[in-house]
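Protocol step 4 of 6: structure prediction from sequence.
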Amino acid sequence: MAVVYNLGMDQGADWDLNVVYAQPASITNVSGNGTTVTYTAANSFSAGQIVTVDQVIPYIYNLQEVAIATASASQFTVTNAATGNYVSGGLATAPLDITGYTAKMQMRSYPNSPTSVLTLTTENGGIIITGATGNIQLHATATQTGAINQGPYDYDLEIYQGSSVTRVIQGQMEVSAQVTR
């Protein structure tokens, strides 16, 4: 299921958005012994993958962009000196390698509208994918955004690998009117 992000766009200005396509894992327990931190979470991570951990109480276990030392289907470890008693929470995310994928983002007045007011793709240069890091960079020019009337629109971003389609994000885009010309 796609993540819902409601976004804004300024009419007549360049618009950029960076999205990292990542696999999540909900953390149910954490323990640290002063050299290794073990996170209990159903996951499909692998050793060497870069992971970010957020929303853990205590915060000492929240780590940004660390390498996974070992991984199994039920837990993963990282090298870190953190210790403390786990209280609750936690979400781990690791970017997925999307090398070879293509992407498309469209904006419409309403989801079933026959006309797209903005289409960005890897083919037209509006989307750049950095595969190994899972990074998807979207860019609309000032000319493109200037052609869109102010108001609310629906959008989504999909990635493609062969016949497989994955919706990454979706939501509403509020376009604000350009005043200065």
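Step 5 (inspection) to follow. The first strand starts at residue 3 and ends at 4.
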